[in-house]
């Protein structure tokens, strides 16, 4: 027989007080702490970092926590003499290399989906911003996950990242970062034909229409007014200390080829890496600042006369991550969205995605998808089982 004692009034009081302390103490402050770490390590605004941790990352872990027991196989009807079914099985060891611009959020995207599918993880944070990932390792220990389930390895990409991609015990490599680094990762992973997911990013076009039908479809006449308003908005941005309320930008190529500089992009302040927003107008696709991804608050603006011209110019790039369309003619926006060579298209909004929606691009921007059920496919492999039920041996 098994015996145990019932809780006394004092025991109930003690448990309730412990739960209250956890609710109002360190547990509720974890998001704030992680946001502080990312803001200090990355230079981004504290408010932005808090949103990435408290909203985006939390929702991602919540989504994949609920998805863990919903990864289903399939049965396929063939003939009365055969049973065929498909299993979705883990890939095994997943090497994950994340970028510096969204430190903890990128960790959440990769770790949550990999673990939900039953994989183990070796994560290398960006060498510039490793702190929140290292602190996450403390959570892993406190959660009492089996040893080796999640491993955090800080270090330079030239050694730690390259070795991780080449390691024969690693079954999959998922990478977010620059195109050049991604190509090196891809070459390293090809030694044993690893499963890969690569997100390179790229320049994302934003098409702003007038009424589309008015003025015979020629929308060039809104260009000057748009430039004026956009430049004014850029100049109104407040660049400065990461933790100062009211600032809209925290810490982070040159003027040539004939583009017109509308907003300065000069250094802000005498200390640190603070650069004001930069806006170039009258740009063309042959200028380096147009097709190349620049990690900073820099925008290029050009005008178009007809819808097809806008589509052609938007697609005139080796990248295809995302695009946005702003117009009052939503029916036309759907037509343009289908013709844009991008993995994500926003209509009358931008970057307001959700963890259930796939994230990834076309062409040189991506291989594979992250987020949503599509990431579950990326972190599992299909096994087809054929059963002969028409013949008794």
Automatic annotation (TrEMBL):
PANTHER family: ALDEHYDE DEHYDROGENASE-RELATED. The keyword Oxidoreductase applies. It holds the Pfam family Aldedh. Keywords: Oxidoreductase. The keyword Ribosomal protein does not apply. It catalyses: an aldehyde + NAD(+) + H2O = a carboxylate + NADH + 2 H(+). Belongs to the aldehyde dehydrogenase family. This is aldehyde dehydrogenase (NAD(+)). InterPro entries: Ald_DH/histidinol_DH, Ald_DH_C, Ald_DH_N, Aldehyde_DH_dom. GO terms for molecular function: aldehyde dehydrogenase (NAD+) activity. Its EC number is 1.2.1.3. Residues 33-207, 220-385 form the Aldehyde dehydrogenase domain.
